[in-house]
Amino acid sequence: MHHKLDIHPIPENVLYINELSLAAKVPYETKQESEKALTGKTVSDGGILPDDNVRIYVPMDLNADNIMRQLQSLYNRLGYLDDENESDYSIGVGRLISQLEIYDQVRVVRDLANATRKVNGGELHSQQGIALAQKMVEFMEQRGGNAECFPYDEISELKAKFWL
User: Fold this and answer.
1) Which residues, at least 6 apart from 130, have a Cβ–Cβ distance to it below 8 Å?
2) Which end of the chain, N or C, is less packed with Cβ atoms under 10 Å?
3) How does pLDDT run along the chain (164 residues), one tens digit per residue?
């Protein structure tokens, strides 16, 4: 195996999102354990990570096309929505909603003049973030399924969060 190991990100002007759950499923049962793991400290340094732990950062490109492609891929991979795969759908879409939120936050910061606020003092959203949330909702609403909660909870969450 020959992986390209660097001591700095390429390009160097990037954002760091310190959320372990974006990269993979986290093996921690409590929020406290997750927060301890996030520090990167090993057991010998007072943390909870094994002493042979290696923390790496992997680039992730966030854009509307990529997020929608991932949503389509999730549906293609998991097939017809039912009680058997509802949890997998929920976890996968939850991860995409986190990516959407990060994408939206960055778009707001980069174009604050065009950000939208529903009420005074309320949360700001970008036009791109709102449009992407709408596309995700429409995509999930168009797909059939026979599950109890998914995608209804996720659709409700996106509609409330992005004023759809």
Assistant:
1) 104, 116, 162, 163, 164
2) N
3) 678 788 888 888 888 888 888 877 778 888 899 899 999 999 999 999 999 999 988 889 999 999 999 999 999 999 999 999 999 999 999 999 999 999 999 999 999 999 999 877 789 999 999 999 999 999 999 997 888 888 999 999 999 999 99
| Closest alpha carbon to 164 in 71, 64, 156 | 156
DSSP secondary structure string, 75-112? HHHH-S-BTTTHHHHHHHHHHHHHHHHHHHHHHHHHTG
- Asked if the bond preceding 9 is cis, omega within 30° of 0, the reply is no
With CA atoms as reference, report the closest residue to 34 among 49, 15, 16: 49
| Rounded Cα–Cα distance for residues 48 and 39 (Å) | 9
Q: State how far the Cα of 108 lies from the Cα of 154, in Å rounded to an integer.
A: 22
Which of 82, 95, 80 is CA-nearest to residue 26? 95
HSE, CB side, 13 Å, CA atoms: give it for residue 96.
30
Residues 92 and 26 sit within 8 Å (Cβ to Cβ): no
CB 12 within 8 A of CB 4: no
CA 136, chain centre distance (Å): 13
